[in-house]
């Protein structure tokens, strides 16, 4: 029997707007289960809480209530909502990837360095990291003239392609995709799709949200629909 790689139980999250003396309830008792090797999609309107779920898993946000059980290759079954930050940092380096529309990097790190360092974090040697970085940058058609440039000078689409390349080159155990194709043209979307299909064949488990539902439908094993912070059911 295939076990769950990720199980979310009773997840709730709220935000306090101190300047308005107001509390916003973003998530209400979310339950979600992802089997190893699945690609599960989350759909819903903007502001419904989709990205908040992924950020709680990645621990960008600390959940208010609930548990997020993850079957780690290094640490066994752990609750991501409760483990120490140092363990979260290690998981981000070697097991859990996150792709968003935004690229946050050191200002004086080149595009190629970013992808190479992602491979090195997995414990591979420098020669292997060089080969994989070149392969990934080429796959996403980032002009070779940009490889040694700083991403701050890139266009929005170039930054997004670099962000995807950096996350996917690690071939993580769990990959979280937060609107990764939002500003890409059709050719770039196809390259993302090709790589997602390859990672699925290699066993990567994925949880993703997309504006492009047609893109998601052709890849996802199952789909959860969220409305105003609550799931309205699972679509097979």
Beta strand %: 25-35%
Silhouette = globular
Report the helical percentage.
25-40%
CATH topology description of the largest domain: Rossmann fold
The CATH superfamily of the largest domain turns out to be P-loop containing nucleotide triphosphate hydrolases
Radius of gyration: 18 Å
- The number of helices is 7
| Poorly predicted ranges | none
Query: What class would the helix/strand composition place it in?
Result: alpha/beta
Name the CATH architecture of the largest domain.
3-Layer(aba) Sandwich
Membrane topology: Peripheral membrane protein
Protein name: Phosphonate C-P lyase system protein PhnL
Keywords: ATP-binding, Cell membrane, Lyase, Membrane, Nucleotide-binding, Transport
GO molecular function, one term: lyase activity
Describe the structure in your own words.
The chain is an alpha/beta fold and 236 residues long. It has 2 domains: 1-90 and 174-180 and 205-236, P-loop containing nucleotide triphosphate hydrolases (Rossmann fold, 3-Layer(aba) Sandwich), CATH 3.40.50; 96-171, no CATH class. The chain contains 7 helices and 10 strands. The strands form 2 sheets. Strands 6-7-8-3-9-10 form a 6-stranded mixed sheet, sandwiched between helices. The chain has a 4-stranded antiparallel sheet with strand order 2-1-4-5, with helices on one face. A hairpin with a 2-residue loop joins β9 and β10. The protein is globular and about 50 Å long. 37% of the residues are buried. The mean pLDDT is 88. This is Phosphonate C-P lyase system protein PhnL. InterPro entries: AAA+_ATPase, ABC_transporter-like_ATP-bd, MetN_ABC_transporter-like, P-loop_NTPase. It is found in: Cell membrane.
């Amino acid at each position: 029997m295939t076990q769950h790689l990720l199980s979310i139980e009773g997840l709730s999250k709220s935000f306090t707007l101190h300047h308005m003396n107001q509390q916003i309830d973003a998530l209400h008792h979310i339950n979600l289960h992802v089997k190893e090797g699945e690609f599960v999609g989350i759909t819903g309107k903007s502001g419904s809480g989709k990205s908040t779920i992924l950020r709680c898993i990645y621990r960008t946000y600390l959940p208010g209530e609930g548990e997020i059980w993850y079957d780690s290759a290094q640490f066994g079954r752990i609750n991501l909502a409760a483990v120490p930050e140092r363990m979260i940092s290690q998981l981000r380096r070697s097991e859990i990837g996150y792709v968003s529309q935004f690229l946050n990097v050191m200002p004086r790190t080149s595009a190629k360095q970013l992808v190479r360092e992602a491979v090195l974090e997995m414990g591979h040697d420098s020669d292997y990291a060089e080969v994989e970085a070149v392969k990934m940058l080429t796959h996403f058609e980032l002009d070779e003239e940009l490889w040694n440039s700083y991403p701050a000078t890139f266009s929005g689409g170039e930054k997004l392609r670099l962000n995807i390349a950096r996350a996917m080159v690690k071939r993580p155990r769990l990959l979280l995709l937060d609107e990764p194709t939002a500003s890409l043209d059709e050719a770039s979307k196809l390259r993302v799709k090709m790589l997602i299909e390859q990672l699925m064949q290699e066993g990567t488990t994925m949880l993703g949200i997309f504006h492009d539902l047609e893109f998601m439908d052709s890849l996802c094993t199952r789909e959860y629909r969220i409305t105003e912070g609550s799931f309205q059911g699972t679509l097979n």
